Amino acid sequence: MDNKKIRVAITHGDTNGIGYELIFKAFSEPEMLEFCTPIIYGSPKVAAYYRKAMNLPAQFSIIQKAEDAEDGRINLLAAVDEEVKVDMGLPTDESGAAAIKALDRAMTDYRNNLYDVLITAPVSSQNVKIEGYTFKGHKEYIETCIGDRNSSLSILIGGDLRIAAITEKTPLAQVAGAISQESIVSKTTLLWQTLKRDFLITNPRIAVLALNPSINEEQSCGKEEREIIIPAIDHLADKGIQAFGPYPADEFFGSGYFSEFDGIMAMYYDQATVPFHALYNEDGVLYTAGLPLIHTAANTTPCYFMAGCNEADPTSFRHAIFTALDAFRHRETSDEVGTNPLPKLYHEKRDESEKVRFSIPKKHAPSPFPSKNGKQGAPKGNEQKEVQNNAPRNNEQQNNNQKAQQPNKQKAAQAAAALSAVLSAVQAGQKPASKE
């Protein structure tokens, strides 16, 4: 593995949204160019327009092909016609076409091995029109260009939370009929493989959420849990994958138990996104797993209402860049280890009290909820941590720890409340309010 800078392709997204603002602000720190070599697939004219309109301190060099990209500068590849009209804040067919032109050029260059990872600025599927094809999003379009259909998986990443869904864009009324043992096993296996290869987690622990609410030790499981989800978890355990559950989502997030797992598999889109947005609304990253190309994006829409206002926060976009860089290095390391295997003497740590993460058989999977004796279940690796936390501390230490824990507890409570509202709406046959 050499020390060359990673080449990062960045598509400009919808030209009437916040794409260029996110890109220029993300690279406003000179240190960013020390980590990678950016190649923006876009329009020099549109880029200059946004730079002037918002007085952004962005200096870029215009290139005609990716081979001309140089380290230490922002390279802007002219992938779109200069005649693109900018209507800030308005989703137009022209802005959608400009987004696809940039993405198509990036796909062509990827097939020619001209860059290493891809970050996409936000687009709206409503104004992207392709003859003979219904555009649903970046993930699906990239699949048609370089991968197999239905082979990828969207993972939302924020902090230590990594969550995906079995049914990503299925109407709620059709979710129960859309899940199957096969889909749960295949997508959870893909999540597990991604955590190992792209995140270097030696033995990932994955929580599988229940479809129905209020499923616990003292209540009978719903039909879907009994006939589909639990058998799928058993099958995963037989394959050597540490999958646990099913856990009722509202209690799972409300208790903060999600932090004990490396990955979470939800059953449907809102079950994953509602708690995620409550916990990591400002800095979340969307990661596409299962493709040969590492692809990330900021967890945001084009935000037309914000276009040109110089108010967009680049934190999520910058995190998307760092996530892609880390995944690229991790994948190289993982593939190198796979080619030249050596005995592993030390396993992935969860905390300082857990020196080795052991595999826990499915029948011993922990329960996050109070059992009949009133004891809260927890992964066995944390038992020593609980004992250590009972050691005497001075008042200042206790106060500082309590203050540090309050924001996380508040966010977890907000996530649980938001998800409960979604579950109530589903039970009442209503459509939950969508997030722009």
Automatic annotation (TrEMBL):
Residues 388-416 have a biased composition (Low complexity). This is 4-hydroxythreonine-4-phosphate dehydrogenase PdxA. Residues 332-416 are annotated as: Disordered. Keywords: Metal-binding, NAD, Oxidoreductase. It comes from the Bacteria. It comes from Segatella copri. It holds the Pfam family PdxA. Residues 345-357 have a biased composition (Basic and acidic residues). The keyword Metal-binding applies. InterPro entries: PdxA_fam (IPR005255). One of its GO terms (molecular function) is metal ion binding. Coiled coil: none annotated.
